[in-house]
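Hey team,

Filing this mostly as a record. A colleague (T.K.) asked me to run one chain through the structure pipeline before their review meeting, and I want the input and output archived in the tracker in case anyone asks later how it was produced. No errors, nothing strange. Just documentation.

Input sequence:
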Amino acid sequence: MRLILLITALVFSFNSIGYCQEDEVHSCALSHQATKQLSGQKTLTPTQENDANKYDVHFYKLDLAMSNLVTALSGTVDMHATSLEPMDSIVLELYPSMVISELRLNGTVTPYNRTASVLKVPINSNANDNFILSIDYAGTPPNPANNPFGGSGVTNAQVVSIGSRVTWTVSCPFLAHEWFPCKQILRDKVDSSEVHVTVPSTCKAGSNGVLQNVVNLGNGTTRYEWFNDRPILYYLISVAIAPYTEYNVYAHPTQLAGDSVLIQNFIYGSASSLSTIQGQCNLLPGFLELYSDLYGLYPFHEQKYGQCVAALSGGMEHQTMTTIGVFEKKTTTHELAHEWWGDHVGIASFSDVWLSEGFATYSEYLMLEHFYPTEKTALLNGWHTSAYSQLNGSVYNPDTLNINRIYDSRLTYKKGGAIIHTLRNILDNDSLFFQTLQDFQVEFHDSVAYAMDLKNSFELSTGLDLTNFFNEWYFGEGYPTYSARWNTVGNDLLVEITHTASYPSVTPTFTNPLEISFSRTSLPDTTIRFTITTNQNQFLLPNLGDITSMNTIDPENWVINKVGTLVHDTAFVAGINESSLSKLNIYPNPTNGIVLISGISGNYSVIVFDNTGKELKRILDTSEVDLSQFSAGHYLFKVIDENGNSVVKNIVISDL
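Output structure:
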């Protein structure tokens, strides 16, 4: 039996650091940084970006001719938009190597100005005027070899196992304009999109949404017509082309009451590799069902989830159709989780890429926790080891134009995932934690959000003030190293916890809860949860005098931390006062159904949980709790005083 006591500091001081949220910056979402194609630079000046913000894009239709053999393409893109204020010109982007043969505004051929990647089209528009901009163009996207980040909007590669080539797009962060004319501003999520791709008839073309038609044009080419009726960010529009085999499986989320979600996979390879890939595809229904339970029903269930294989060493979370090159369960589940985190709820700021990458990374842990629990600890340990490799660095990204910093593996992904685990522990209530994430998905569905929006959601749902958590773990830098000493005096346990910070000039103090495991004389090991408020806290725990040793700090890896010294100090006796909950008495234990509470004054609440952490009952200011309706077994009582201090005790209902 694992007994958790929540202990609040008796003597404390407080250090805090204030941080500002950057107002407006670009953002996009990738998955594993080391495997992504990072290229492209922001091309709009602040003035040009301001002009681009004067209109709202509703719809893109791409009608393109492409091949699996080369990156060159040709076709037409229609952009449907509305003026938000009077406008004299439309500003958008298209890479210089793309040659425009004709540009039409509302069907009329229109002149335009072009400087590098920036197009400026004259328009005499009032507020709320609708317009359609159509561009016929052709060309070859930039050569990846000329790009310092390695990659471009369209990439082509030879696949040895099939003796053929594959072409695929990656538009994040600012690569979309390398293959189609567009407005690359995150806060303008288009309402819908349509992609028609004409390819050699030996190939298939995958894209977003639903495949509405496959048209054999009779000249050795076939047109694949995809339609997406959901809001989508510019960088999530995609195409992948190869001699694919289609392999479909189906998920059955509980919310659909027996209905299914299509998982449409365009795959290739030799017979042996196809078997391996199909085996990984067969895992996806369980993963999708898990995330539907945790985050809410798969947001694009009426369309599909899909994967297009490409010759990249990772994956990219294109909406409803991930482009992927590594079929390994953590990679495939990471990309799938992006459909909630990054796609359904996009990020409004490059600074807050954590909302996409941190949550997709933590979803890997949740998948292991549910399906492969023996592997979860190694994953967390790896994240923590990565965080220790440097003493500083924040999950929040202060440099919105530095692509390597945005997709920093150590900070954005691994530390970003690990601090979500810490936040989960701060709540200490999985039902509330995941319900808040579901509520956040509902509130910001088909839109974009900042990290502070998530903070507000958690504070509203829990009543907690999470300022310290975000200041210390999101905006803050570094990690703590904990040391502790303990002693027993009579029947009481005395504990002192101290910590130092790896980067104290920015974040000197970490105030998250901390668990420590102890051994006892005649009972199983006990894990005690302490509330840390300063760099040195002392605690008195009455009626715990049978402790024989202090075993481990943070046994469940809730916190990125190192451990200094653990000392049994027999001279440690003074300087501690009792807390408001130190005389709390919950009895009888075991009980036949009635539990009495004494030794506490003022306003307080009592919460009863079963042994899975599910909340069963919540009562205010009561001296008697009736549990007779519950079956025999172990339960947790959490008593919270008016100052927010709390204690959790194990209660046994006897079957006598």
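Quick notes for T.K.: The chain has three domains: 4-17+478-568, 33-354, 585-653. The CA atoms of residues 596 and 624 lie 5 Å apart.
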